[in-house]
Amino acid sequence: MEKKTKVVNLLLTGKQKSYLRSRANTMNPIAQVGKGGITDAVVTSVEQALTARELVKVTVLNNCLQPVQEIAQGLAQRTNSTVVQQLGKKIVLYRPNSQHPVLNLPE
């Protein structure tokens, strides 16, 4: 049974993206996408991390057959998040937590 998520298009300003990129700079990756691509286990791991932290860094391994940009868009869609940055094989995702906010974005 596939879980349906409501897609929210979160528009971030340049200042907000810059702030999130600076916060993600020192973070270690939470999840890794490998040969199997975007699996349910990866989605669950990223979902839990987004709920707890709002900002998540993911690594795409060299043995992954899909392009990194495709992985980034797929993860963002399945986790209802926004791609903040995709640099090399690293992806940074952001999803605000309305109940327990962790990050305060600049205006």
Q: Quick one: how many beta strands?
A: 4
**What's the CATH class, please?**
Alpha Beta
Largest sheet: 4 strands, mixed
How many distinct folded domains?
1
Q: Reading side by side through the largest sheet, how are the strands ordered?
A: 1-2-4-3
Estimate the strand proportion: 15-25%
Give the second-level CATH assignment, the architecture.
Answer: 2-Layer Sandwich
Mean pLDDT over all positions: 87
Shape label: globular
SSE arrangement, N to C? HEHEHEE
Radius of gyration: 13 Å
Percent range of helical residues: 25-40%
Poorly predicted residue ranges: 1-8
CATH T-level topology: Translation Initiation Factor IF3
Which helices and strands occur, and which strands form pairs?
Elements: H1 14-25, E1 31-33, H2 40-53, E2 55-60, H3 68-79, E3 82-87, E4 90-94
Parallel strand pairs: 1-2
Antiparallel strand pairs: 2-4, 3-4
Describe the structure.
There is one protein chain. With 107 residues, this protein is α+β, with helices and mostly antiparallel strands. It is built from 3 helices and 4 strands; from the N terminus they run αβαβαββ. A 4-stranded mixed sheet has the order 1-2-4-3, sandwiched between helices. A hairpin with a 2-residue loop joins strand 3 (82-87) and strand 4 (90-94).
